[in-house]
Design a protein that fits this description.
Layout: E1 6-14, E2 20-31, E3 41-44, E4 72-73, E5 78-79, E6 84-88, H1 126-139, E7 147-151, H2 153-164, E8 171-175, H3 183-198, H4 215-228, H5 232-238, H6 259-272, H7 277-289, H8 299-304, E9 309-313, H9 323-335, E10 340-342, H10 353-356, H11 362-369
Parallel strand pairs: 3-6, 3-7, 4-5, 7-8, 8-9, 9-10
Antiparallel strand pairs: 1-2, 2-6
Helix pairs in contact: 1-2, 3-4, 3-7, 4-6
Length: 371
């Protein structure tokens, strides 16, 4: 599929924290055709370092399609011959320098000053992402979703959709996700990665726009994130203990590096070129602070609001959101009367398997979406 990015704007957007932004803008993509009754829509929410580019290509020359292209398209699990699939960039999207990303955040110019907000930008919450998506759906005349789905942070958004707007969601698909971040994830990679940015002298309290940026801190944060998003079995099978350069092996010189070190560093530097360090901090805070119902209700009461049928799909080798945490979410939802299907993504790819190996769950997704 060839796709294009559209822009959605909202004036006077009130955030969950109580602050009001004069204008917010997000980019969005769609795949398939909206029915005349506007009753065939599925919302896909993206993961922490992702964008709304869930499927298709912007041009025939684009080397890789969107991250869930394996399950979105004609005849696939999210069948675009049947469904209208919609995906939007979040506020504070990490990839703010990507020309295909539209997002409002710390790197955006404050209309009052003409300069980037920086750390004066108010905190954002998962609920804010949901509210922008709701306004987008309202603008498109979509009152009820066949499903809302997403991996990782996308699963948090899907869960919040089911709580905030139970009458608008028929199915909720939460892939490699949980109810809220546990202490392991809060510390590693949460705290460790954000501290890497703050300890970079060029971060300068978030005041670096127009100056040298804290690239090294951001690169280190991304390396921490990428490492925990995988797992030992994946690292063993992919890299083992091979050196990056046999002529400068790690055991023979302090400057030597293992192949896994060199490749994760190169990947992080490529990704960092499209990202903003302050956006990383804001998005990390939104994830760390999330509680089901956004703190407006006790968790059990929040779960009792859900009317959607739920599919929870953890990965057996996930270190980021261990599958035991997803199992606890399933039990808590069932205790409040929610209909839950708990499946498993059988992969040694770690957390990222829910993004890069989603085709392994294609039939599970298809069966869950069946009328």
């Amino acid at each position: 599929m060839l796709v294009r990015k559209e822009t959605f704007r909202v004036r006077g957007f009130r955030l969950h924290c109580g602050a009001t932004l004069p204008e917010v803008a997000v980019g969005y993509e769609s795949y398939g055709t909206l029915s005349p009754a506007r009753d065939n829509a599925i919302l896909i929410c993206h993961y922490f370092s992702g964008t709304s580019h869930a499927a298709g290509r912007y041009s025939p020359e684009e080397p890789l399609p969107g991250y869930w292209d394996a399950v979105i398209g004609p005849g696939k699990a999210f069948d675009t011959a049947r469904y209208f699939i919609l995906s939007a960039d979040t506020l504070c999207n990490l990839n703010v320098k990507d020309p295909h990303v539209v997002t409002t955040g710390p790197a955006t110019a404050n209309p009052a000053t003409g300069k980037p907000y920086g750390m004066t930008f108010p905190p954002v919450a998962i609920r804010d992402f949901v509210e922008v998506q709701r306004l987008l759906l309202d603008a498109l005349g979509i009152r009820r979703l066949v499903a809302v789905a997403g991996p990782s942070m996308g699963g948090l958004q899907a869960l919040e959709w089911g709580i905030a707007y139970p009458e608008r969601v028929a199915r909720m698909l939460s892939v490699i996700s949980v109810a809220s971040l546990g202490p392991w994830t809060l510390m590693m990679p949460g705290h460790a990665a954000t501290e890497a940015i703050r300890l970079d002298p060029r971060w300068n309290g978030g005041d670096y726009y127009g100056k040298a940026e804290p690239t090294e801190g951001l690169v280190l944060a991304l390396k921490i994130l990428s490492t925990i998003a995988r797992c030992p079995a994946w690292a063993d099978a992919t890299y083992g203990r091979r050196p990056a350069d046999v002529a400068a092996a790690p055991e023979s010189t302090p400057a030597g590096r293992f192949l896994i070190e060199a490749e994760l560093d190169a990947l992080a530097r490529t990704r960092a070129a499209l990202m903003d360090a302050n956006h990383y901090l804001y998005l990390a805070l939104a994830n760390a602070a999330y509680e089901p119902g956004s703190g407006l209700l006790p968790v059990a009461e929040a779960f009792r609001r859900i009317r959607a049928r739920c599919l929870l799909l953890p990965c057996r080798s996930d270190l980021f959101f261990p599958p035991a945490e997803t199992s606890r979410l399933a039990a808590a939802l069932e205790q409040t009367g929610v209909t839950v299907t708990l499946a498993e993504l059988a992969s040694d790819g770690g957390h990222l398997a829910g993004v890069l190996e989603i085709e392994k769950a294609a039939e599970t997704l298809r069966a869950f979406l069946a009328p």
